[in-house]
Amino acid sequence: MKKxxxxxxxxxxxxxxINSALRKAVENLENITFHDLYSSYPNFLIDVDHExxxxxxxxxxxxxxxxxxxxxxxxxxxxxxxxxxxxxxxGSKGNALSGKLFLNVLSAGDQATYLKKGDNPFSLKxxxxxxxxxxxxxxxxxxxxxxxxxxxxxxxxxxxxxxAEDYRRFIIALRDNRINLGKxxxxxxxxxxxxxxxxx
Amino acid sequence: MELFLLQLFIFLAAAAVAVPIAKKFGLGSVLGYxxxxxxxxxxxxxxIADIEQVMHFTEFGVVMMLFLVGLELKPSxxxxxxxxxLGMGGFQVIATSMAIAxxxxxxxPWQQALAIGMTLSLSSTAIVLQTLxxxxxxxxxAGRSVFSVLLFQDLAVIxxxxxxxxxxxxxxxxxxxxxxxxxxxxxxxxxxxxxxTLGAIFSIFFLGKFAARPIFRTIAAxxxxxxxxxxxxxxxxxxxxxxxxxxxSPALGAFLAGVVLADSEYRHELESDIExxxxxxxxxxxxxxxxxxxxxxILEKITLIAALVVGLIAIKWLILxxxxxxxxxxxxxxxxxxxxxxxxxxxxxxxxxxxxxxGVLTAETIDPLISxxxxxMFLAPLLFIAYExxxxxxxxxxxxxxxxxxxxxxxxxxxxxxxxMGTDLGRLLISAGIxxxxxxxxxxxxxxxxxxxxxxxxxxITRLDLLESAGAAEAEVLxxxxxxxxxxxxxxxxxxxxxxxLKIAANALDRGSVYELMDLGITxxxxxxxxxxxxxxxxxxxxxxxxxxxxYKLKRLFRKKDEETMPELYKIHRKDEEQYISMYxxxxxxxxxxxxxxxxxxxxxxxxxxxSISPEE
Lengths: 200, 617
Fold this sequence. Notes:
- Chain A has 200 residues and is of the alpha/beta class.
- Chain A contains nine helices and six strands, in the order βαβααβαβααββααα.
- In chain A, strands 1, 2, 3, 4, 5 and 6 form a six-stranded parallel sheet that branches.
- In chain A, α1 (17-26) runs parallel beside α7.
- The longest helix of chain A is centred in the C-terminal third of the chain and has 19 residues, at 157-175.
- Chain A is globular.
- Chain A starts with a strand and ends with a helix.
- With 617 residues, chain B is mostly helical.
- Chain B has a six-stranded parallel sheet with strand order 3-2-1-4-5-6, with helices on both faces.
- In chain B, α21 links the parallel β4 (477-480) and β5.
- Chain B is elongated, with a radius of gyration of 31 Å.
- Chain B starts with a helix and ends in a 6-residue tail after the last helix.
- The relative contact order of chain B is 0.09.
- Classes of the chains: A alpha/beta (200), B mainly alpha (617).
- The interface between A and B is medium-sized, with 17 and 16 residues.
């Protein structure tokens, strides 16, 4: 069984239906650590040492956040800046994260927004390349994002529930080593064809 | 009694008239005193009777001066400046003593020549430090060198006082006026005499290290300032008596006591309590010097005395230039260094009197020398003026980069008050590498804080002299956390008047105090409990289940808005109470609305932002 760390950031958490639903779906699972950055560090004073110990204790590190300005909310960037230290996360002696899995779980705009010919001329995967590069530098295995699209303009409760359920199934499979990694890496979002990615 | 009061009146009145006049002409207070002395002396208005008697009494001013020098000399400071003090000071004193003694030895026995050499090697601490301070030259490299040399000279007086009796060649002139006060130690056998002497020195150390603090604490707790002054004077007088009783120099004893107490938290208080007495006694001492100048003798021996004055200044100047060259003081600074120290000093009067009393020198030898020293002191301020005139002409180019104006460990922050507010504030500053000078009026508190290793001093901060000795002239920021608004206001007004450069940060107990501080033009104000109240509010929100980041944001929002409304409320708070209250309520209501808005899921705005497909549309 893998241990999963979900690093979560949402500056207006009580306003986000989808993120609360996603959170509820996974936070009480066994071997899952749900870690709310805005709650732990409201004044942004991140305890780097504690964060590094947390990462070391888990096999998968997930960043769950709304896709703010094609990136993460500010505190998550702060986390990346401070916690991923040279000599710990990367560099010739930095092997603390080596071999661990890395992925983003995010809520973002319409699918149509992220097409080459769309309103943003980049795909979601393309826009996440800084994270892909980060994972690579830290010798981690990068997976395509678990993306909930078109959540911002209000989503029927049924749809929200179905995304939450997908998330729950995905996390449990990830924890229990029931993921077809080869297939997963090739997908655009890991949840675009969840059935194909999950084994058994 | 009447006669004594009359004499006192004449001295004080002469000082009060002469010193301001002398200062007006840029001559410094020492010259003022000397001139006052001449005016009331036998060659002026003949107003004072027994000059000798007065002089013996006022020599006590010198004892106090050494006590203060000792207080200034923390062992650590002494260690830090050991090279310039020992090197420059040592070289100057020894070379000058030798040169003058060498010349004097042509006319007098060597013992007398040596005593004269040592006596004349000293310069006038009072004149020089005062002049440098007035001209703002204390922090130049020359200023620091001058200070080092003066310090060494002050210290050198002690071995000189000890050595002079060994140089006695003539029968003592009159009995020793520091004669045994309590009992005659000379009656004891030799070994006992040494034991008693050592015991006396040891008791100074012991009392200073262990007994002084509890005593001061008890006295300070009474909050009657006079008693503290009395205790300070009692220390100096008591030590003098003790030293006289065992046949040592009272100045030496006072100096030792000063050094022992230099590390105590009562240092500044002692300093500022003794200072006026020292000043006054030294002033009267200078007056009596002026009064004792024998103009008949000076006129009779005008050639000799003129030669002595010129010779003295020339020899000292040459040796000082040499000192400057050896210790690599730069060109212009070297001339200033040499000019500053080229006169005789007030200790010369003490040492000459002492040597007369101990049978080293005769009155006939001393009289022209005393006149020469006094005249050289008259000339000192004039030499400064001459130096300034010449150096202005000779250096048209701007001064090259010299190691001037370097902070000599000068503390940048003075903290007034170190109570419940000051403690944490001080800890923050100290952990940020800033060492504040801390003043507090609660003796028990000071005692406790010292135990924890803070540099804290006891004293009433609204006293100008205490501010001065805490370094207000050099500090940058004054942090006031006294709490009491009346005291705070008093302090701010005092500081504004005397140290307008000091930036002020102040705490206020309540909103009313904030307005009072704003009346005084203070802009950096914090309400004592405001920050904690908001933090506790944030905690309460969290306990109620509000998301920590939301609680934090609300706290910041509240603080920002509250502080923004402050100036507006301030403007009307005196004019119209009704209007003030309604404005206050309005602001509170606004704040409530604003916070509610922030709490609610105001999705509309957010949605719009994310729905707009690209920023251009």
